[in-house]
Amino acid sequence: MERLKISVIVPVYNTMDYLERCVDSIRKQSYENLELILVDDGSTDGSGEFCDKLEKLDNRIRVYHKENGGASSARNIGIRNAVGDYIGFVDSDDYIDIDMYQKMMELAVEKNLQIVQISREEIDEEGNILQNICIPPEDIRFCDSETFMKELLLHQGDCSFCTKIVRRELLQKHRFPEGELNEDFKLLVELLLQVDGVGILPKQGYHVVYRSNSTTRKASENSFSRVFMDNIENADKIQVIVDKDYPVLHSIAVRFNLFQRLDYMLHVPIPQMNRKNSFYNGVKKYLRGHICNTIFNRYLTVKNKGYLLLLTVAPKTVRKVHRQIMISREQSQNRTIA
């Protein structure tokens, strides 16, 4: 097993306060046969220069510098230059357990797997443990591709590549889509078509650090993240893939499409809900054309159905009421904290 090398790719953009912890957690891995590729994505806070200093500490580290273009473009540079048998990814503000890659490689070799996933822990900047987004299995689990796809569509699976190692050959013909958000989901769906399934470890060896200033969903009153639109576009593409390769999951994929549009409608700024916004009008048209799917889809909750139907009939009114509810809830939480 030790003859197999892992290439760990870390995109770096303005994470000076977290970078050393991240890199140290990779350098200290009990599985030593790895290379660490740091891709500076045009950092302006000194992170790029710090990468160069780190490179001198360990001959397994290689550094690449590029103009800012996003995490996907940085990851793709790493993939092009990787020489490992497996490729893993770590975000530069996160960190990993010392035996994470050891455990993942043991499972990969034992079961001859092309993709292995470890479970993850969510923490805030102060180190407080947050509620799990993805529930770890109780034991080591092999999840066939169709089941894994089903869990992704039900928002139960983990689409992040940071919790996975992937055979390098799988990524030779596939790349992270650049200029888009939710890029992990799209690429993972493509890879699932190439493998029998994914091995999943219960150990929460990857630690996701949520920073208040790094969220992709931060929005002003009149603008919001493109991630909501990218989510919908990805859902449409995935519906085509599901209907072709996993037809038994058709209803679940429809539920996924409706849910992504619900997420969009609950976040789009009210001033943008007008006739000139073609994307918004397309979402309204889709909801109106899928009323029966909304009512009879057994994978949607009663609450989901209620919101979808109300947003189909009176989207602006519902959004105004929903916004006031969220403001009141936030004020109540602030008073409780104070």
- Portion in beta strands: 15-25%
Query: Could you tell me the radius of gyration in angstroms?
Result: 21 Å
Structural class by secondary-structure content: alpha/beta
How many beta strands in the DSSP annotation? Answer: 9
Proportion in helices: 40-55%
Shape: globular
Total DSSP helices: 12
Q: Report the mean per-residue pLDDT as an integer.
A: 93
Unreliable spans are: 215-221
- N-end to C-end Cα span: 54 Å
| H/E element order | EHEHEHEEHEEHEHEHHHHHH
Largest sheet: 9 strands, mixed
Question: Which labels suit this protein?
Answer:
338 residues; alpha/beta; nine-stranded mixed sheet; globular
Write the layout of secondary structure elements.
Elements: E1 6-12, H1 16-27, E2 34-41, H2 47-55, E3 61-66, H3 71-81, E4 86-89, E5 95-96, H4 100-111, E6 115-124, E7 141-144, H5 145-153, E8 164-167, H6 183-192, E9 197-210, H7 227-245, H8 250-265, H9 278-289, H10 291-296, H11 302-313, H12 315-337
Parallel strand pairs: 1-2, 1-4, 2-3, 6-9
Antiparallel strand pairs: 4-8, 5-9, 6-8, 7-9
